[in-house]
Each structure stands twice: as structure tokens, then as C-alpha cells.
Amino acid sequence: MPKDKKKEEVTEVEHVDRNISSFSQISHLIDAEIITRLSLSHNKLTVVPPNIADLISLQSLNLWNNQIEELPPSISSLPKLRILNVGMNKLTKLPKGFGSFSELEILDLTYNNLSERSLPGNFFFMQTLRALYLGDNDFEMLPGDVENLTNLQILVLRENDLLTLPKELGKLTRLRELHIQGNRLAMIPPELGNLELVGSKQVLRLEHNPFIPRIQDQFDENGAAGVWAHIRTDDYRYFFGRQEPSSTPVPPKRNKEKKVSRKGIQQA
Amino acid sequence: MVCLGMEPDHNHINGDLAHGFENMVCVRCRDGFSMQDQMVNSSGEVWHSECFVCAQCFEPFPDGIYFEYEGRKYCEHDFHVLFSPCCGKCNEFIVGRVIKAMNASWHPACFCCEICNKQLADVGFLRNAGRALCRECNEREKAAGHGRYVCHKCHAMIDDGQHIKFRGDSFHPYHFKCKRCSVELTTASREVNGELYCLRCHDTMGIPICGACHRPIEERVIAALGKHWHVEHFVCSVCEKPFLGHRHYERKGLPYCEQHFHKLFGNLCFRCGDPCCGEVFQALQKTWCVKCFACSFCDKKLDQKTKFYEFDMKPTCKRCYDRFPTELKKRISESLKDRDVENQRRSMSPGPK
Q: Considering its fold, how many domains does chain A have in total?
């Protein structure tokens, strides 16, 4: 039997890889008022019930590797939630008002089927967000609204379909990790040169993009630091300002047929 | 009253008084006169000739000139010594016209403008910073001295930048001596508690100077960062709140409160967001409290000995890594392979230009 048998005083519930397909299977173990952590990774959940909002003390909710296709709008009203991991699921969109979390600091949406069209209007208004993981999704562009994530330190956009980045990213002065490898980026806006992303405490991942030669040459020769130094030059700024958006052919998207998040999802 | 007298003519006196001199007595010795005695008569009084002398030196009056004051007669020299004013300039006695000015007496020829030396007795003078000046020189001085400090002690102008402040007034520094070592002060002196000290004594007296406001600290002193501080001036470099005895953190010579130090310098736990104290885990460019270090995907606790993988720079336990979809693992291993090749190639090629 699970060690969380006693309902009293149990504030952390961990049921990882237990073949759970519904929240009702574990609800008897949960004292909604006091539970602070709920870890249900590697299960078979398809739905998160709206009464998840009753867990008023919940700080950390981990639903990694389930089969969730949709989240209830009520999830954003969890008043204490700081960490939400819904990665490795089958999300194609986020509910309306998703960005209204009051305390959310770490949001992991890795490996879903999300794109810029999946986001509600207030998504980028989570002032408390420190880390946003959007790797392995379907973004082709990122809205300039991202500038409102003023506390963001970590942004992962690894292996999406991004063709461009918004210059507004350059306003996220607290950013110390940027992962944009494996996209379709030909250029990087010179404004991103404002960001201090080169150093022993920073992470900058740029590989596997169809960069224009002057960026690729820098990357091959001096790595990410060389690219960052180059986009800070007046020469590059001038060059970037004169590029026509359609001057380069659009590279094809990566084949994602084998992604498990796709299985059983109706393709648009 | 002083009256200048001349010794009367002896013969004339003797002739006048010849008929009754046996009843007279000398004013000085009170003796009578014999026929042989020479008599001196002055203003109706008579003396033996040898008794008619200066009341101070008992010598006869040279050339018969005497000066009388309060009933006594003095020779000219003694009269001046006792009663004449002295000239403020040449220190000689003043006989005749006396100029009284500037709280002193002067010979008319000695009372001159202190700048151009013109005699002032008849043209008048003006007082300027304790000096008597002629009208012209006074005008010039007034124009030149406009905006300068006047010494509160000697009332003279002080050259630009050469004054010191003491109890709110300006002075020439050379009017004062250091309270401690008595050296004559220069402009590099300091006032402490209403006393003046030379800079050297001031510095060795150990009166601490606040590192923030650069003023002396007379109450509680905080010593930190190699400097002294007023309690209320030792503050966090970010929020500017005084530490008031609470712990502070230093970085590159600046003090920070705990919260802002960790916020700025990245020692906040990646998971709980609180400052990490004591033992911490540092990996993947992040820091964790010991209790918070866990697999990002199943929340399983990790410790120093647990092998973990990196995925998007997050710690990943072996079970979670093994359960990644095959196609994802394939991409991860390909990108790791690429990165190895890149690193190798870059380490072999010459460094950045």
C-alpha cells in the first residue's frame, strides 16, 4: 500500500507510474486543503477535472507523461501553484485565461502539440514566471507579448518550427538561459544582443538552425559566443535592417510523425 | 589741569617781596627764608631755589620749563612719561595736536592711509576691515574684496580658498593652533566637537568617517567592507534598507541584503525559489537546496550519488530518461554526438580571432 495511506497531515502525494487513468482513483488519498505537492508522472490520465482548483495549498503539480489533451480553465486559479509540469502530454491548446496564475514560477509544456495559435491572450502576462519550457512543440513564431514575462530567466524553444524570433525578447534582461536550437531560424534580431547569455552561468543553445552564412560562419568558428558578439556589431544591425522578410526560401518543417504526442490526435 | 609755566625773574620777585620775606615759608620744605637764600615765586607761592624741582626726578627744570598737573610740577620729560599719549605708529610721545582715531592716538603726520600712506588728519578716513584708509583706497578695496570672506578675528579679507570655517564663521587659519599638537593650522584642518585640529591629528584621533555620507560618525559605528558607516547609512545596494544589525552579503565591494544578494547572484534554489543556505547542489548552471534536488519529471529525490541525465538543462533520473519516446532519445543522442564533434573541432582549430 502507498505510504500516503493516512489522510491526515499528508501534504505530498506521489503516485508515479501506477497506471492511473482517472483522478478519482486517488482522490480519497488527498486532503484538498493541505496538499502541497501532487506528482502523477508516467500515468494514463486523459483529463484533469475542474475541481483541481480545490487544492488550495498546492504548490507543485507534476503530470509529466500522461495523455492529457486539455486542461480545465479552473487550473489557473490555484492560488499557491508555483510549479506546473504538463510536459509529454497531448495538449493542442491551453484554456482561456490560462495566464492568470498568481504565483506560477516554473511552467513545463515540453513535448506537446502547442503553437502560437494554442495560447490564450493572457499567456505572456505571468509576471512571476521564472522558467518556461516549450521545447518539442509546433511554434512557428513567438508573439512580441513575450516581453511581459519580465521575470523570465529560462526560455526553452528547442525543436519547434520557429522561422523568426521577436525583437521584444531583447527586453527580457533577466534571461540567462535561451534554448533555440533545432528551429528554422535564418537570423537573430540584433536586439537580442542586449541579453547577457554568454558566460559560465548562462546557457545559449543555437545549433541546428538554417542560419545565413555570416551567422553560421561565426557559429562554426567561435560557437554561440561568436554569434552573440556578431549580432552586437553595427555591421550586423545594418545588414539585418535591410533584409526582406521573404528574401530567403522557407525551410521545411521537421517530420514529427513519430512524436508520441501526435498519436490519436486529429491533425488539423 | 596742565599749565605750562616759566620760572619767574628772580630779581623781580626778590625786589617785590623784599620787605616781608621773613614771614614766608617754602611751599615744598616749609622752612623760612634767610637773606642769602634764592627764592622762586610762582603764582603767588614761594620756594627755595633748590626746592623748585620736578616732582618726579627732583632735578631743576631744564630751561626753567615745567608742566603742572594736579598741583604738582614736572619737568618736560617726566611729564610726557607720566601723562602724554603715545603715537600708535611711531610710539613717541605726542606733544601738541593729538589725533584720536581707531582707538589710539597719533601724531598728525603718523596717521596715514594703510595702503597709500597719505596723511589722513585733515582729509578724513574710512574704516575698512580694521584698517584706516583714505577714501580712494577704501573704494578700491571694497571693489576688490567683493565676494571674499572677511576674517572674523582680524577683519581682513581672506584670499580665495584660504579660509577655514569655525563655529560657523570664517577665519584665516593661522589665527588658530591645533587643539592637540598646537601646530599652526592651515586650510587642511577639521572642526570636531567645537575644536579645531590639524588634518594629521584629526586622522589619527580615529574619528570614523561614514563611507556613505563622508561625515564624521559620532554615534554608533558600523565597520564593514573596510569602511565605517552610520548605522542608518549602511544599506542594501538594491533596496537601500539599512541592515540594522542583520546579516549582510558582500559582492564586489557592495553590500546586499540576503534577499537581493541571492536574487542578483543566482543562489536562489531553482525549485523553491528561496535563498539556499548551508549545503546546496550545484549543477546545470543552477542551484538547489538539498531537500529540493529531484528529478524534474517524476519528483524523485536525487542525491550526490544518484546518476542523472540532463534534458533542457534540467536534472532527469534514469527511469524518466529511459521512458522518453524513442524518437526523442534518438534526437538527444544525435545532438550530443554533434556537440562532441563540434567541441572537438573547435578545440583543435585556432582560437577566436
A: 1
